[in-house]
Design a protein that fits this description.
It is a single chain. This protein is an alpha/beta fold. The chain has 3 domains: 3-51 and 219-302 and 413-461, 3-Layer(bba) Sandwich (FAD/NAD(P)-binding domain), CATH 3.50.50.60; 89-213 and 473-496, no CATH class; 303-408, Polyamine Oxidase, Chain A, domain 2 (Alpha-Beta Complex). Helix 2 (17-28) runs parallel beside helix 11. It contains 18 helices and 20 strands. Strand 16 (324-331) and strand 17 form a beta hairpin. The chain is 35% helix and 21% strand. InterPro entries: Amino_oxidase, FAD/NAD-bd_sf, Zeta_carotene_desat/Oxidored. It holds the Pfam family Amino_oxidase.
Amino acid sequence: MSEGSQQKRVVVVGAGWAGLSATYHLAKQGYDVTLLEAGSYPGGLVAGWKTAGGKSVEAGIHGFWYPYRNIFALINELEINPFTTWTRSAQYSPAGLEVESPIFQDLPRLPSPLGTFLYTQFQRLPLIDRLSALPLLYAVVDFDNSDAAWRRYDFVTARELFKDFGVSARLYREAFEPMLLVGLFAPGEQCSAAATLGMLYFFILAHQPDFDVVWCRGTVGEKIFHPWVKQIAKTGAKVLPQRRVTDLIVDSNNQAKGVVCGDEVFDADAVIFAVGISGMKKIVSTSASLQSREEFRNLGNLGAIDVLATRLWFDRKINIPRPSNACFGFDVTTGWTFFDLNALHDEYKNELGTVVEVDFYHANQFLNLSDTEIVAIVQRYLATCVPAFREAKVIDSSVIRLPNAVTHFAPGSYRYMLPSQTSFANVFMSGDWIVNRHGSWSQEKAYVTGLEAANLVVSHLKAGQPAKILPVEGDEAHIQVARSLNQTVRDLGKSILPDFWLP
């Protein structure tokens, strides 16, 4: 820690994965960091809390996938053990069990995506439908996460993408759209093809084990964020909850000098925003300095998706074949997941009855229902997948409504998403909706963008060392060759043909 860095004040707004990531690194470099969180607890949407009866709940359950190298490195640094072992997952429709996934890393490694194709256990989907996905590999290879690739595919819907590449209607309906509903949280006609290809690359094309997942052995807030925040506090950073940011103080030199929270002002030599789209739009709506910039005004073009998180306690033990399950076909535009918390969470291992978490994405049609109506629907859906739920009695429940909770990667949205560097010289952005070239996804992407924002602060203020960001595993050799060949053909086409892609 240098004397210069100790004199530099950084304000981070938002205490989710991105904000905690940036705060932790900058505090370790000796900066005077203040982390402001609008909610009552650090953690943003993944912070867990207790009900009035002392039971743990959270705003949905999130998996930690095999490629989350940076988050796993953090866990090792904190010397905590929050995760389950690698788990198997299943997928259900109203017709019953549709798919079971193995633990891919335990099987002989085959060239990508052959292993994913051969080892995934489809119960009903015919081989001819699965083979119809082969032409789609061209687009997945073509999408290299570059700015050009995003602009090439972002105006196309996912539904159009699958149709144009000849994916069968049944494969789309029973495999790809369910993946969109629980991965991008919206039906195919409402998802950007670019975001879809980014997700497909991350989970299918990159490497055979990438679909393997572990889960937190309790709420993420209790198991990860609480010990992490304790460690952050030891570095001297201040973590202040219930501080809703309303404005940014900017001087005549294009520099942010402070962050306003109602009547409080926090002086700053640099500012990092680490909030979701909905939170950022609220801040912009009250901030004259942010409204003066087109990039922030244009955030009004971005949207978010409603989530419903429920937790049910049943009066008996029910055998749930797999601990994590995704479901489709129950509602046309809604995907949902359910988790056996007796198998996943330490707190419920010895519970006499079954505890299940059921989360709905793109759940707008459910939010206005009463808790009683929602619990009845949840039990009915569960019983369709696992019939033993039909006779069980719900003895306790939690219903959490989360309007505009998760990023909507809508067609055409990429041009309004912000990069880490803004038009303010010392204001930086982070979060899962920020443009970055790392190639990560979801929580890992949020965490990585927090490190990237911290590194921009280190560079701008010229004090401290940058964080080491672990890259995603490189493409396999045959994918590299395919990408190189594809780029050569594209470059040749540009030299002799008009540009057929609209900007």
